[in-house]
Specification:
The chain is of the alpha+beta class. It is built from two helices and seven strands; from the N terminus they run E-E-E-H-E-E-E-H-E. Strand 2 and strand 3 form a beta hairpin. The mean pLDDT is 94.
């Protein structure tokens, strides 16, 4: 089953997207966008930048769990992962984003 970008409207009125793996698990979530076109551009940016491992930055939360952010070439954060209990889980998450983003469909649920 292929991955899917899901666009939704947040309680703050902004547009958000999540990238879901084929099993439906959220593997990346976006910041809030003020416009629909900004959100759609964010999705295209994920498709492009997820293919280069150098665009992923692994971080450690205060509780010791790891997560990653995907950055554009200008350094701006495009999306953020969930928290992982292990380094291998975090690494697998990055691989899943790269594998799913390129061919993921888009579902607009606003």
């Amino acid at each position: 089953m292929a991955g899917k970008f899901v666009i939704s409207k947040g309680a703050d009125g902004k547009d958000y997207f999540t990238l879901r793996a084929g099993n439906g698990e959220v593997i990346l979530q976006s910041q809030g966008y003020k416009s629909a076109s900004g959100c759609e551009n964010g999705i295209e940016s994920v498709r492009t930048h997820a293919q280069d491992d150098g665009n992923f930055e692994v971080r450690t939360a205060k509780d010791g769990r790891e997560y990653f952010v995907l950055k554009a070439s200008n350094g701006q954060e495009i999306g953020r992962s969930q928290m992982y209990k292990s380094k291998s889980g975090c690494s697998n998450g990055k691989t899943s984003v790269a594998n799913n983003a390129a061919s993921a469909t888009v579902s607009d649920e606003r």
